[in-house]
Amino acid sequence: MAPPFIYFNGYPGVGKLTIATALSKLIPNSKVVNNHLLIDPVGAVYDRGDPEYQPMRKALVHPALLTLPTPFRTSFPICHSHRLTHMYVQRQLILNSIATSATAAPKTWIFTDQQDSDLIGSAAVQDYIDAAKVRGSRIISVILTCEVKENVRRLTSGTRGIPGVNEKLTDLAIFKQIVETEGIYHFGGETEIEVDVTTLKPDEAAKLVFEKIEGMPE
């Protein structure tokens, strides 16, 4: 079996990227793909010297010209926003490349995301499931939770939402709406981990996740 996909999900500000990055230091030959890097998705996956880099950059300029193989097209939701539709196509192209390229094959891929259980969120998660099947990998789901007060503190601190650095959410009104109306997508089953990180430092949370992954049956 190919190395796994590790899929972090949780509300904005909970610490997904920080903990995923710490986890990657514990897993040899692993790479983190941050959902915010869809702005530059190719650079998030491949180095400039990799043979896949330039062809993927060209494909993403005109993604409609590149026909996605099944099963990726089957999960594509109907979106009325051009920007959202473009983002979905970009993600599917990147996941298809990770699932099929020789450069990506030996790596453990760690993804961070924030998807709920509605139609669009479920379709987005299905893209990762489909890519894992093509690659022959299992998906390990990591759900991060946090008490709201601490989540708000994290949301409004550090380098979140700095123009030119990242597009992370810092608007508390939007955050409140997300928490009240969106339920985080759960895979369920024995390959899902849920960790309350309210009182944990990133390295502590990463170590706990790593230990739980190590203890999973193959």
Task: Give the helix/strand layout.
Blueprint: E1 5-9, H1 16-24, E2 30-34, H2 41-45, H3 53-61, H4 82-100, E3 108-113, H5 119-135, E4 139-145, H6 148-155, H7 172-181, E5 192-196, H8 202-214
Parallel strand pairs: 1-3, 1-4, 2-3, 4-5
Helix pairs in contact: 1-8, 4-5
Question: Would you give an account of this structure?
Answer:
This protein has 218 residues and is an alpha/beta fold. It has helices at residues 16-24, 41-45, 53-61, 82-100, 119-135, 148-155, 172-181, 202-214, and strands at residues 5-9, 30-34, 108-113, 139-145, 192-196. The protein is built from eight helices and five strands, in the order E-H-E-H-H-H-E-H-E-H-H-E-H. It has a five-stranded parallel sheet with strand order 2-3-1-4-5. Helix 4 runs parallel beside helix 5 (119-135). The longest helix is centred in the middle third of the chain and has 19 residues, at 82-100. It is globular, with a radius of gyration of 17 Å.
Indicate the radius of gyration in whole angstroms. Answer: 17 Å
Low-confidence stretches: 62-83
Sum up the overall morphology in one term.
Answer: globular
- DSSP helix fraction: 40-55%
Neighbour order of strands in the largest sheet: 2-3-1-4-5
Biggest sheet statistics: 5 strands, parallel
Structural class: alpha/beta
Q: Summarize model confidence as the mean pLDDT.
A: 81
